User: Fold this.
Amino acid sequence: MASPFYINALVLGTLPGHPFTRFCNDLVRAEASRIRLPQRSVHDTVRETVPDGGVDLLIGEPDAVHRPTSWGEWIPEGVSAWQYKSGSCPSANELAESEFKKWKVREIISRGHAYCFLTADSINAVKASEITDVLESIYRSFGQEPKGRVYGATKIVEWAKQHLGVAAQHLSVPVTGWLPFDQWKQVHEARNEFFPDKARTDLIASIRESMQRSRSMIRVVGRPGFGKTRAVMESVREEGLRQRVLYLPDAANFDANFIWHLR
Assistant:
């Protein structure tokens, strides 16, 4: 079944540098959570005034115990560096003489790690291929097997459809009745610091354990005023999980087809 949610790839091109960086960071973190890559392996930044050597996000090598059994289609296996480019995408030759010459990019490539270039521009297949060819030539100049990836706006929005919490938060995708995490915590007035007692601490631990076991349904019951909603919110507040959250405050807006799509 096709996705019931339409995201115009041109929307990405309207995002300024900082919002595009935040969007991409959240998308990568959400994907890391899905494949069970520890969040401590993901190192990102939104400090645009700090020189980054051409790398906006770095994924380190997880230890053997926490290594994903499947990496999926978006995050390369092992160490990878990510660079984001908002606005119009330069030509392959221009990138070769600018972005791809930055010291951190060269360091990553020289070591044979994966390098992912994400552009907010809706580049066509020819331009994407030209950029990929340039990256391949740089890898081979260091005697490394090419591991470069190029994600244009069209590919990125297809990825975002798999993480609707991120799409709703950053791209204003209409998901009727559902709220991404940051909006949920505002309407729930949960900005006060949370001081859980043992019962709520145990509940939060139980919810997180169930999610780690990939249970498709978790039911939380308790007396009115116990703090069930806040406990669930705190359970998914951590990085990687909160980016994947959509909250439905009114069951009258429940649509079974929507749940089918999420599965």
About this structure: The chain has two domains: 10-170, 175-262. The CA atoms of residues 104 and 261 lie 39 Å apart. The mean pLDDT is 87. Strands lie at 42-44, 57-59, 80-85, 114-119, 148-151, 179-180, 246-247.
